[in-house]
Predict the 3D structure of the following.
Amino acid sequence: MAQIGQPISRLEGKLKVTGAAKYSGEYNVPDLLYGYVVNSSVTKGKIVTIHTGDAEALTGVVKVFTHLNRPGTAWFDMQYSDMDAPPGAPFRPLHNEEIKFNGQPIALVVAETFEAARQGASMIRVDYQESAFETDLKKHLDAAREPKKGMATMLKPPPPKPTGDFEKAYAEAAFKASAEFTHGTEHHNPMELFTTTTLYDGKGKLTIYDKTQGTINCQLYVGNVFGLHFKNVRVVSPFVGGAFGSGLRPQYQLFLSVMAALDLKRHVRVTLDRSQMFTFGHRPQTVQYTRFGATAGGKITALNHRSVAETSQFEDYTENVANWSPMIYPAGNTLLEQKLVPLDVNSPTDMRAPGGCTGLHAIEATMDELSYKLKIDPLELRLINYSTFNTAENKPYSSKQLKECYLQGAEQFGWSKRSAEPRSMRKGHKLVGYGMATGIWDAMQLPARAEAKITKDGKLHVKSAVTDIGVGTLTVMTQIAADEFGLPMEDVVFSYGDSKLPFAPIQGGSFTTATVGTAIVFASKALKKKLLKIAKSSNPGFKDAEPEELVFKDGLMLYKEHSVTLLELVAANKDKPVRTTNLGYPHALKLRKYSRAVHSASFVEVEVDEELGSVKVTRALTAVAAGRIINPKTARSQVLGGMVWSISKALMEETILDANLGKYMNQNLAEYHIPVHADINELDVLFVKEEDKVINELGIKGVGEVGLVAMPPAIANAIYHATGKRINQFPIHFDKLIDL
Amino acid sequence: MNNFSYQRAATLSDVVGKSTFVAGGTNLLDLMKYNLSNADTLIDVNALTDFHAIEEVPDGLRLGSLATNADTAYDSLVENRYPLLSKAILAGASAQIRNMATNGGNLLQRTRCYYFYDAHAPCNKRVPGSGCSAIKGYNRNMAILGTSDQCIAVYPSDMSVALSALDAVVNVSGLNGERSIAFEDFHRLPGDTPEIDNNLQPGELITSIDLPEKTFTKNYSYLKLRDRSSYAFALISVASALELEGDTIQEARIALGGVAHKPWRVKEAEQYLTGKKTDRQNFAAAADIILQGAVGFEHNAFKIELAKRAIIRNCIMALDPSTQLPGAQPSA
Ligand SMILES: Cc1cc2nc3c(=O)[nH]c(=O)nc-3n(C[C@H](O)[C@H](O)[C@H](O)COP(=O)(O)OP(=O)(O)OC[C@H]3O[C@@H](n4cnc5c(N)ncnc54)[C@H](O)[C@@H]3O)c2cc1C
Ligand code: SF4
C-alpha cells in the first residue's frame, strides 16, 4: 500500500504526549552550569558602569560575563551572518557598551544552579547613559526608505516593477477602493522557551542541544563566530516545541551558552524566560496603503499597494507585504512599493506567514470593499478576476486550482445563504456576518542533500539534518522514503535534527517537504542504481534491467519475472549497508517558465454583539490547493493551526509597545493574548485536488503558511458584513465595534 | 528572584504578626519572579486546617480563606445559595489557577497594570513617588472611576465583584486579635497612597469571608467583557443581583469590576431601582448613576459607555434565569 496520501499520525506523537521526547533544555549531565541573561532596561544609550560584584559574591555563581570580560569572537559582520540574516550587521551579544534596543542582553550570570544564576542576575546594577530613541513607526513614516539588498533578497525579491500607468488607470477607473492598514508588533511565542545546552567534551568538541529551525545554520554560525572547525561543532535538535520563525536565526542564548562553555570549559545551559522571549525577533509594525480600481463590470484595472515596515538600526529586515496583488489579480496597471523605517528595536524576524498575512489583509479587505461598491458578491468578484497566469512574473502557474477552492469552499460553507447588504443578518442581538478572502503563498524549493541506505536487516535508513518543528516532517519523510522502496512505515528509519547529517536548509517558508522530500527521491534513485548494480553481478535475471524498469515492493526488487530481496542484495554486498548521499534540487531550467504558488480561500462566519461589540468566529472553512498532499492528517493540522492563528491575528494578538519607554509591555502569556479553546468553534479544512507535473518529482508544493493568509482578512470582511464597520487595524478588539 | 526561607505554619499563633504569607502562590510567585516581592521568608499558611472549610454559620455561609477558588465555586452550598459568586469565580483565571488560588489570596491579588509588573518603569504603586507610567502610556485596561493623579490601576479580581454585590464581610486575625471588615471597606482607592491596596494591616491573616443571609438565588448574572473567552482579565465586569416581585424590583445590587481600584458599587443607583419596574430605561438610568464621575484616558474612554451597556445587559440577563444555565454564553 502506498504510504503517500495516508492520514498517518505523527510517529513521534506518543513520545511527545508522554513526555518522553527530550527538548533542548532537558539534556541533563552531571556538572551542568546554568546561565541566566540580564537584559538592558533602557532602549538606547551606553552602559557606563555595570556592577557585578554582588552577583559574583553570591554562593554558586561561577562567572558573570559582560562586554568587559567576554572572550574574543570573530571580527567581521559576515561571520555573524546566518542563512536567514537580512542585509546589515547582525547583532552581537555582549559586543560593547552600546545599547541598541530595550531588552538587549548585556550580561550572562553563570552559576552552579539555575536559581543562583537567576538571583545573581537580579543583583546586577547598571548605570546607563541614555539617549533619545524612536520606536513608534507611525511617527516616522516620512523617514521610509528603500531596503538594502542582500542574500535574503533571493527568497524575498522586491516587488515587481510598475506596469502600465497606475495613476491614469486609477483616475479613470469606474469604481475605486482605497484604505490604510496598520498592524502592530507581534512575537512568535512558541510554547518551548529558547534554550541551548552546550556540552563541552574537553577535547575541543562541542555538542549543542539547541532549539532551532536549522541545525546546520547554527553549526555554521557557531563555527564562524567562535573560530571552530565545523566538524567540532555538532548541533542537535530532534524535538522543537514550536518556533514559528523565531528559530530561523541563531538566537542569543546559543551564542551565550557556547561562549560560556568555551570560556569555562564546562557544560553550560542558557534558557530564556518568557519575558526574554520578547527580546529577539518579532513581526514588524507595518502601515499599508492600497488603491484598487475596477471597471463597472468588476475587472480590476489598477493596483497600488504600498507598505512601510519597521526594521532595526542595524539590519534591513524585509518581508514581502506588497508583492502579492498582481500574483492573484491580473491588472494592467500596477504600482507596488515596500519601504523601511529603521527604529530603535531589535531586528524583526520572519513570523508565521511573514509578509503574506500582513499584505493579504490589505489586499483582500480592499477587494471586499470594492465588491460592496460594485454591488458584486465578493466571491463573484474574485471569479471575474480569475487567472491562471501570474501577471507579476509574466508566466503561467505550474498549477493553480484556486477556482476549485473558491467553488468547493463556498459550496461546503453555504456561502449562498449570505445576504448581500452589510448588517442584514442577525440572531437575536447578535449581528451575523459572512466574509471570504483569497490566500496565496510561494511554493518554494531549495537544494538539500539526503542519505539513503539499506542495512542487512533489510531496513531503509534515510537521513537529513532537517528539523521537525512540530509540523510532521519525520512522518512525511518516512512516508516518502517508504514509497520509493515499496516498504511499510516500520521498515523505514528517518534520522533528522542533527547537523552531522546531510545538509538541509533552515525549516521555514513551507518549503521543507518539497526540499527534503525531493532530496530523498534523488537519493533513492541513486540507491536503486547501486542496488541494481549489485543485482547484476549476483543475479543474471537483472542483466538487462534499466533502473527505471525496476519495481520495489514488499522488500523485493522486481524486474519482469525476476525478483531479489533487499536482504539478499545487502548480503551480496558482503553484508555491508548499501548507501548513497545525494543532492536534490529544483529543476531550474524547467521551472523558469512557470510561477509556483499555493492557494487557498477562506470562508468565515462571525457573530458580533450589537451593543457590546464582542466577536465570535462561529464557523470557518479554508480550502487549499497545495499540490500533492503527502499526509492529509498532518497537512490538515497545519491548516487548522493556521486558522487558529488567524483568529489570533485578527482578533487578539498584539505586543503592546510603549513608545515613551521604548519597550514592550505585555511580555507574558497572560497578557499577550492568543486564543483559548473557548474561542475556537467550528473549523474545517478542505484540500482540493491539484496535480502538478512541473514543480518537482513528487508534485509537492508545501502546506503551512497558506493556512494563515486568507483567514485573517476573511474575518475582517465578515465583521464588516455583520456590522458595516471596516476596521483596518489588527487586532480588531470589541471596543472598536461599538458605536460610542 | 531571591533566595528565601520557607516555613510551614501549623497554628494561627505561628502566623499572626509575621510576613510573608503564601497560600496558593499564584500571584505571589509571579511577583517574586519579577523581583517585585523580595520576601526573605515565606510562611506557608495552607496547613491551618481551620480555615479550609466552607460551612454554614447562623446567618449565612462562611468561606474559609484557604479554601481554593475551585472548591468554593463548585461547593454545593455556594452553588445553591450564592450562584452569583460561583459564576464570578469561574469567570476568572483558568481552571489550573483556580485549583491553586485561595479565597484569601484572591482578595489580596495585586493589580495587573503592565507598568507595575515591569521593575524598571516608573510606578507609584511599586515605588511611591516615581510617577505613573500608565496615565500617559498604554491605559486600555486601566480604571475610569475613583482614579487619582498618582495611580489609575484596576483591582482585577472577579470573585471580589460578586462578594461586593453580596455584602460579604472579611474576617481577619492579627496580633491585636480578630476583627471583621465590611467588604466595601476592605479595598481602597489609590488616592495619595497607591502603594496600599487594602486595609489589611501588616501581619494580619484573612481567616474567612462571611456571606450574609441574602442570597439572590433566582435573579443574578455575572458578565465579563474581555479580549478572549477565558484566561483574560476583565476590561469590564458586572455582577447583578435582583430581588423581584413580579416585575417590580424589591432590591438591586450592582457591582462593577475592571473599572476601579476596588469593586465599584454605587448605593444610590441601587436605591434608585428599588420599587421600579424591570425595564431597560430604569437599568439605563441606574447605569448612568453608577458611571457618574467616570473619567477616561487615551485608550480606555470606551469603558464609560461600554460599562453602561454592560450593566443594562447584565441586569436584563439577571431577569431570565435561563441565561445562567451551564453552557449559556456570558454575553448571550
Ligand atoms: C495568569 C493569571 C490569570 C488570572 N486571571 C484572573 C482573572 O481573570 N480573574 C481573577 O479574579 N483572578 C485572576 N487571577 C488571579 C488569581 O485569582 C490570584 O492569583 C489568586 O486568587 C491568588 O490566590 P493565591 O492563594 O494563589 O494567593 P498567593 O499568591 O498565595 O498570595 C497573594 C497575596 O495574598 C497574601 N495572602 C494569601 N493568603 C492570605 C491570607 N489568608 N491572609 C493574608 N494574606 C494572604 C500573600 O501574602 C500574597 O501577598 C489570575 C492569575 C494569573 C496568574
Ligand atoms: S496605574 Fe498605578 S500601578 Fe500602574 S503605573 Fe500607574 S501607579 Fe503604577
About this structure: Residues B 111, 113, 115-116, 123-125, 132-134, 151-153, 194 surround iron/sulfur cluster (ligand 2) (CB under 6 Å). Chain B touches chain A through 39 residues (CB under 8 Å).
